[in-house]
Write a structure and sequence with these properties.
2-enoyl-CoA Hydratase, Chain A, domain 1, binds acetoacetyl-coenzyme A, hydro-lyase activity, four-stranded mixed beta sheet, globular, Lyase 2-enoyl-coa Hydratase, Chain  A, domain 2, 258 residues
Length: 258
Amino acid sequence: MSDYQYIEVSVEDGIGHVSLNRPKVLNALNRTMIREIVTVFDDFDQREDVKVIVLTGKGRAFAAGADIDEMADDDAIRMELLNQFKDWDRMNMIKKPIIGAVQGFALGGGFELALSCDLLFAAEDAKFGFPEINIGVMPGAGGTQRLTRLMGKTKALEWLWSGEMMPGKEALQYGVVNRLIAPELLNEQTFQFARNVASKPALSVRLIKEAVEKAEDYTLAEGMQFERKNFYLLFASEDQKEGMKAFQEKRKPSFKGR
Ligand code: CAA
């Protein structure tokens, strides 16, 4: 499965793995690469043998941002007509869990790609930031919105205006990343966590993601109503019958994802 120019793709143990593969330019994200990522994510979202998606980067960076060389001569109207961020938006439609593992730099669009993941594990040497300010632009793929939701207005503005790099420890403190891990253990621990989620009943995993995402936009009452419907819906699944029966019979459940 390597029909792609800028990424590597594999599937094993229920985990669909995409690895950014332009290490010479620190995985700078060009349009083709984003399209490739999202095409594979869409495919993974449909496949029964993929329960969880893991996104990693090859080399000394997760991704150092959108490809500046590709953008440098662009103009506003061309970007509008191209609908520059359409493929990025498609990532928000993925229903399966996406876990990102960040080593080295996650900057600009690379940070935005990381923030599009549901969970982020990072190596202790990871560095996050929005250096767009230093090249006369600003984030365009959700950075101002997602960072502000995570750390609040004042802290987000500090990072966005300074363009400085946020060390992993600080990213952990603000809930930007879930876990900081020794670099040599990053992949192993990320995949271990992914396998654990992949072993859970897939419909529960999916409907939990859907409900948690609503929490950002819904009022508490609306969100609770939404949650309840998803809870009821799971009683139409085979896995609910199996999970509860296995508990009563004191045995391990065997989930089918239905
Ligand atoms: N686009 C294109 N090429 C990039 C790149 C990027 N975003 N980031 C790094 N590269 C290339 C460099 O040009 C260099 O290529 P050459 O070897 O051919 O010269 C190679 O990757 C290695 O980079 P450096 O030599 O610069 O490595 P370094 O260790 O000295 O510095 C760095 C690392 C601090 C990350 C530095 O590369 C850097 O500042 N990169 C740009 C970061 C940036 O501004 N990102 C935001 C882009 S805009 C954006 O993302 C908009 C959006 O919201 C969608």
